[in-house]
Write a structure and sequence with these properties.
The protein has 346 residues and is an alpha/beta fold. It folds into two domains: 185 residues, Rossmann fold; 139 residues, no CATH class. The protein has 14 helices and seven strands. It has a seven-stranded mixed sheet with strand order 3-2-1-4-5-7-6, with helices on both faces. Helix 7 packs antiparallel against helix 8. It binds S-adenosylmethionine (SAM). The site of S-adenosylmethionine has 23 residues, from helix 2, strand 2 and helix 12.
Length: 346
């Protein structure tokens, strides 16, 4: 699975059972949805899920996992390219190479993000998906499943310590493995959810949910910079880069970066809690993060009765050995919220 800072894959089952214990099944919003890990787990357990992210590449994962299915029809591709099954699509993506691509030049020849052979294959698949997209041969969910599968497959051979902020000086063992496009395993669920792209406050304000789940960025590493390459590739556009920069980061201001900076603050979390309707609010946070836990506790008390759980979880690490950290899960019940503060909750 794609390595993502703040991924909740080691605690998603705990969060899902916590929510099921609270509400049975119902509506849940995951405002900082990331790769859709929590949303996918909730969807699997019968909840109606809405997710949001300001970046496009997590949004693609969310469309695939929250709205999509493991098998999609690809009807236009059948008509236009004569590919009659997902196996044939996969085979085509695994045989196309693009030697003159910017992905090969900039991320393999100029910088060591991929071996030359892997860059040829990754670029081949990317340009093919882009051509199909531009020919109008893909639906929104088909594009998202293709992009998600490509990025997920690519990440397993990326020559990085986990993010795309920098590449390693010499090729790591995992980068030497041959790239293969594999379909992302979408689990699905009873209901088709909704994946929204944009600033969480703008996307979700005024809407009502049984549970509002908040898993905000917890350190200074800005996702827009640390995942610039998957973000550019998900947009199906070549980024303009500065040849002098070792990271290959696109020039100019990264879209979404200022929303992500806002998302790091208690003031922004308070705005979400005040402007989105909820019966239960869950804030998932960890030790030693940007907002002190005492500040979080004091602030959340204004929104209702607060219970606090601690979960041991695997922290993000650039080393081989997993790092265990404590996650704090604050559960706020709106039932006891004073009427003067209650806004638009359901
Ligand atoms: C801690 S991660 C979420 C990880 C997710 N729970 C998972 O398991 O994959 C935070 C996410 O929030 C997104 N984000 C940060 N600020 C945001 C904002 N103001 N609006 C929408 N998304 C935001 C980031 O792009 C990032 O994907």
């Amino acid at each position: 699975m794609f390595r993502y800072i703040g991924s909740k894959s080691s605690t998603s089952a705990n969060i899902s059972s916590l929510i099921s214990d609270m509400i049975g099944v119902g509506t849940v919003a995951d405002a900082f949805g990331g790769l859709g890990t929590i949303g996918a787990e909730l969807r699997k357990h019968g909840h109606r899920v809405t997710t949001c992210d300001v970046l496009n590449f997590p949004h693609s994962f969310q469309i695939a996992r929250i709205e999509g299915k493991a098998k999609l029809p690809f009807l236009q591709l059948r008509d236009q390219a004569g590919l009659s099954s997902m196996q044939e699509i996969q085979d085509q993506l695994n045989t196309t190479k693009a030697p003159r691509s910017w992905i090969v030049q900039e991320y393999s020849q100029q910088r060591k993000f991929f071996t030359h052979d892997n860059a040829l294959a990754i670029a081949g698949a990317w340009h093919q998906i882009k051509r199909w997209h531009e020919a109008g041969a893909l639906t929104r969910r088909e594009t998202a499943l293709l992009i998600t599968s490509l990025l997920n497959s690519m990440d397993s051979v990326a020559n990085t310590a986990g993010t795309y902020y920098a590449h390693l000086k010499t090729f790591h063992r995992k980068a030497l493995k041959p790239f293969r496009f594999e379909w992302f395993p979408v689990v699905g669920g009873r209901y088709v959810g909704k994946a929204l792209r944009g600033d969480a406050l703008s996307c979700l304000q005024g809407k009502n949910f049984d549970v509002l789940y908040l898993d905000p960025p917890y350190n200074e590493r800005n996702y827009a910079s640390y995942y610039h390459l998957p973000e550019s590739m998900s947009l199906l556009q070549r980024p303009k880069t500065n040849p002098e920069r070792a990271s290959g980061m696109p020039v100019g201001v990264r879209p979404g970066a200022s929303s992500i900076r806002d998302g790091m603050t208690m003031g922004y979390l308070e705005k979400l809690a005040s402007n989105i309707g909820w019966k239960w609010l869950i804030v998932h946070y960890c030790d030693g993060a940007l907002i002190p836990l005492t500040t979080m506790r004091d602030s959340l008390r204004h929104f209702g009765t607060v219970q606090e759980l601690t979960l041991p979880a695997l922290g993000y690490t650039t080393h081989k050995i997993a790092r265990t950290i404590n996650h704090h899960v604050f559960v706020v019940s709106a039932a006891t919220r004073s009427s003067s503060r209650s806004l638009c909750h359901a």
